[in-house]
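Recall that a protein's primary structure is simply its ordered list of amino acids. Everything else, from secondary elements to tertiary packing, is in principle encoded there. The following example makes that idea concrete.
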Amino acid sequence: LTDRYSTDLSSDLSFLDTTVYSPEGRFDYELTTPLRLNGSLGFVLGKIGLISFDYEMVDYSTMRLRSGDYMFSDENSVIREVYDIQHNLKAGGEIRLSPIVLRAGYALYGSPYKKGINDGSITKISGGFGLREESYFLDFAYVYSLSNEDYYLYSSEYTPAVKTEHLGHTFLMTLGFKF
């Protein structure tokens, strides 16, 4: 990755107007993203529907930052101390009642944090229906999301966490054409 940056400062005074520019800056670094392993299993139930199951393991502790100009020792140490392996589970099903399709799903995204640091897990429940025709399709879905998080306004051992519960309601519509 490459970050390019610059700054400027302007003053607008009655006796003096000045703009000062900093030299252009550039910082090159590498980011190693988390290790991910995925597995899926699906069952087709004739022409009436399907059931699917997905498992994903994400090891956030394997993230790393590297650069020739900066060591990132503190940042990489925090990553190893705070983050852990996360397990995600998803299950879904579909029933085809031509031309109508009914769907439901459940997802549990595990916490990326080590035990006791923060919850960070997310649960999603979804349902929807669609219309399938020869040349187009129209789908509607609703997703309910629930997560809990400890929020720290300041990073201090003397500042208590704010316990937050996030509830999300998402409505989706998809229109597609086959050609």
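The chain has one helix and 13 strands. The mean pLDDT is 93.
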